[in-house]
Amino acid sequence: MNTPKELSYTKSHEWVRFEGEEAYVGLTDFAQDALGDLVFVNLPEAEDMVEAGEVFADVESVKAVSDVYSPLSGKVAEINEELLDAPEKINEEPYEAWVVKVSDITEKEELLSAEAYEQFCEESKEED
Predict the structure, then answer these.
(1) What is residue 64's three-state secondary structure?
(2) Radius of gyration of the chain (CA)
């Protein structure tokens, strides 16, 4: 499992990369691996408001449709339109294929370090 140390993570398997006052959000390597081959993404619109802990998008794989939760409250500054035509980019490069960029951040969900996220994933696997 690939877990870049410079990112923050959620227990619902999203990653966050802060850049100044904005943040990029995507799906982790663990999530894309569990989901399987992605065939569709449903993204919010630019300017939409997102709430920490709430669903803001969904992804469809050959197995199922899964919700994507926002780790932040704020405004969608930009969506990764490339994913609309090529959702498989999340499978190929999960840490390059960001889903949304969030600005005007007012709240953050509890975020985990790479080490804490890896431990959380290991514990989750053991429970299965």
Answers:
(1) coil
(2) 14
Taking the C-alpha atoms of residue 93 and residue 113, their distance in angstroms, rounded to an integer, is 20
Do the Cβ atoms of 60 and 5 come closer than 8 Å?
Answer: no
CB atoms within 10 A of CB 58: 13
Q: Which two tokens stand for residue 94?
A: 């999960």
Average pLDDT rounded to a whole number, residues 78-82: 97
How many Å apart are CA 7 and CA 16, to the nearest integer?
Answer: 6
pLDDT tens digits, 4-58: 999 999 999 999 999 999 999 999 999 999 999 999 999 999 999 999 999 999 9
According to the model, what pLDDT value does residue 117 have? 97
Give backbone dihedrals phi and psi of 102, rounded to 5 degrees, phi first: -110, 135
